[in-house]
Write a structure and sequence with these properties.
By secondary structure, the chain is an alpha/beta fold. The protein has a domain of 190 residues. The protein is built from 7 helices and 16 strands. The strands form 4 sheets. Strands 1, 4, 5, 9, 10, 11, 12, 13, 14 and 15 form a 10-stranded mixed beta sheet that branches. Strands 2-3 form a two-stranded antiparallel sheet. Strands 6-7 form a two-stranded antiparallel sheet. The longest helix has 29 residues. The termini are far apart.
Length: 333
């Protein structure tokens, strides 16, 4: 029996239609699969509002974490992310929540405040400083005090004695501060060299030496450092990730002897894409930056270490620091 031939034109058109439908369904299935890979409970936290995480930040943070878990270098059930394009200070004493603690096993998502790198203003040479609210300048140069976006792993915790401070009438307390070292890769590979890590946003100011020979921290002359405890959670950092003391008390124990990942957005490629679109007044379609901060800073800039480190080195040479002065003796016992 002979089969009747079907005109090629009809068959060709029908075949193309079937192929198009198949491709459309495949694309939809792939998109659905990609979307469903993020648990529904976590997807509910995705957005650009306060306390939410932008999709690109979550995607990259999660991909980094899953990669390190699959490699066996991370067993921690939680991972971190930070969106440094968001404002750090919302005004009226309210801090922007842009650091994320994500624990998928227990379906936990928490957004807290964190400081960004303050940068520096080398007067007459280069100004790469940042305000309290929004970061315009980013970079990975030594001594730049800038935030560098990208992939990090938490490493060892170092707790050190900083001094004493007053907590009441004739009552003092010891101030110990823990620093979590970060190890980076790619553009953040010099994180250890830059001494980049996470710590509470607290320090002692107005330091003087007080006689306390019975203290285990006293020097050979029987003096201990004494100062005023300052919480700078609403301020900037030297490029490290600083948390409020209360948040640090919860975050630091999570990673002590149990490393995990931290992804900080934006990377230099993201900054370049936004800067290019801003310069040509293009739509930001396909790129992400917090809208309120972008309006404030105009256009971000990334300062690569190969460009900025020689500038900083020359500035140091031209402007040597005065010799360090000895810490004075406290006037009040």
């Amino acid at each position: 029996m002979r089969l009747r031939s079907v005109p090629f034109g009809i068959m060709g058109a029908f075949g193309l239609l079937v192929l198009a439908l198949a491709l459309t369904m495949s694309a939809r299935s792939f998109a659905a699969l990609r979307s469903s890979s993020i648990p529904v409970w976590l997807q509910a936290h995705v957005g650009e509002g306060d306390g939410q995480i932008a999709q690109v930040v979550l995607d990259r943070a999660r991909a980094l974490y899953l990669k390190k878990v699959s490699e066996g270098s991370v067993k921690n059930p939680c991972y971190f992310a930070m969106d440094a394009t968001r404002p750090g200070d919302l005004g009226n004493g309210v801090l922007g929540r842009r650091y994320y603690v994500i624990c998928e096993a227990e379906q936990s998502f928490r957004a807290v405040s964190a400081g960004h790198g303050g940068g520096r203003n080398l007067k007459g040479v280069a100004d790469f400083s940042n305000g309290r609210r929004c970061a315009k300048n980013f970079g990975n140069a030594m001594d730049s005090e800038l935030t560098a976006g990208g992939a990090y792993m938490t490493a060892e915790a170092k707790t050190s004695f900083k001094g004493y401070y007053r907590i009441g009438a004739k009552q003092n307390a010891v101030f110990m501060r823990t620093f979590i070292q970060f190890d980076g890769e790619g553009e953040t590979a010099n994180a250890r060299q830059r001494v980049i890590g996470g710590h509470p946003a607290a320090l002692l100011r107005g330091m003087c030496l007080r006689k306390s020979p019975n203290s285990s921290y006293a020097d050979h002359d029987g003096y201990v450092p004494f100062g005023k405890l300052v919480n700078y959670a609403g301020g900037r950092s030297n490029g490290c990730t600083s948390w409020s003391p209360a948040d640090a008390e919860q975050i630091i124990p999570m990673v002590k002897d149990n490393p995990t990942t931290l992804y900080i957005y934006p990377e230099s490629r993201d900054i370049a894409a936004i800067a290019q679109k801003a310069a040509s007044r293009q739509s930001l379609a396909g790129a992400y930056w917090n809208a309120s901060c972008l309006k404030e800073i105009g256009s971000p800039k990334f300062w690569p270490k190969k460009t900025l480190e020689p500038i900083i080195a020359q500035y140091k040479k031209d402007h040597p620091l005065p010799p360090p002065q000895p810490v004075p003796i406290c006037k009040n016992p």
